[in-house]
Amino acid sequence: MTTTAQRFTNWAGNQTCSPRAVESPASEAEVQALVRGAGQVRCVATGHSFSPVCATDGTLIRMDRMSGITGIDPVAGRVTALPGTPVGAFGSPLWDAGLALENQGDIDTQGIAGAVATATHGSGLGLQSFSATVRRMRLVTADGDVLELGEEDARLPAAQVALGMLGVITEVELQAVPAHRLQERIDHWTWDEAWGRLDAMSRAHRHYSFFWIPAEGSAALYGLSAPEGATLADSCYVKIYDEAADSVPDSDEPGRRVGRSYLIYPMTFEPNFHELEYFVPYERGAEAVAAMRELMLARLPDSIFPMEVRTVAADGSWLSHSYERASVVISVSGTPGTDYQPYLRDVDRLLGEFDARVHWGKLHYLTAEQLHARYPHAADFIALRRELDPRNVFLNDHLRELFA
Ligand SMILES: Cc1cc2nc3c(=O)[nH]c(=O)nc-3n(C[C@H](O)[C@H](O)[C@H](O)COP(=O)(O)OP(=O)(O)OC[C@H]3O[C@@H](n4cnc5c(N)ncnc54)[C@H](O)[C@@H]3O)c2cc1C
Hints:
The protein is α+β, with helices and mostly antiparallel strands. The chain contains 13 helices and 21 strands.
């Protein structure tokens, strides 16, 4: 992400805007003053979203000066943090308190408010997104007042995934889990092995995911490695994580690492892809993944971007991809500098047949009609949004189309 006084560009470089003001408040009181005096307001944590969720020509509020863990309760297993706290900053302090985040995704650089606002997730049929672990949240609403939503508040499931539309998050309290180490297993399997075992492996392991590598050269794009002298083309890069037993020592061996959970998850990516990610009901996941492979082979035989396949547990957040249903998660990308929109639109059409929900932080083509058909609480969310923000302070053009 880059921001100057007048320009914001996201991490991937596919979204830019020219805010009237870019502000970095250092306290909740400063956020209140900014919101009270502003026309349109959008927040940005680290700009790792591919979709135009942070875009504004009004006031862009950065989270860089509101970062850090503010409390850990080892008995309740809870952690409280400011909105700009990077996901990776939770690891060590939680470990010292005997705790860990329940799950993490492919990177750990996002700000926690950004990760929560878009239902960022890792992989695991029994593991929910970051949003679902939120037990309390403080928000500065459109009138500049502070709203605290706790577990008993019926509005918390709306605020857990809200893309900044209900207010500026100034603090979150997350449920953590006991500290644990993970044992990694990276294997290279045929398509039939990786795809055919999707259900069995997802049920048997804490984390099962794979990248299908369609072409020579694909793996390098995502920093994935083939065994020496071998190629990954038309095979799968399979990742399995399970909790490591105490008797298994830490190890740095590539593909067989063992260590603290928060050190095992994160990968490194270059901003050389523009990603779309859809969520289909778990029961139809294997069918959808197979259809996607056929589509990729037919539409983009020369495409070198892998397809990533993960799972995520059901939750209760109204705008979550996994609201009351576990998901198989399918991610594909377009190549920057090429006209990838027709291909991604084909993907949208195909996965629409599987009742797909979207990752709000990634490219998608969801329409207002589809929003209401696929998200049972869409109308409730919009009603609450209007009540808390009658002047539409927190809506930008992208969000207005769906949520006005
Ligand atoms: C390389 C890469 C890898 C990724 N891997 C994964 C993955 O494994 N799993 C996954 O699910 N996603 C993944 N993503 C997507 C990413 O996690 C989400 O887009 C996430 O929202 C980005 O976090 P951020 O902190 O950069 O938020 P931003 O992109 O800055 O903001 C996201 C949303 O949060 C809102 N927001 C930010 N701060 C606040 C606040 N204080 N109050 C209210 N709203 C706020 C913004 O307005 C915006 O709507 C990946 C993205 C990239 C680029």
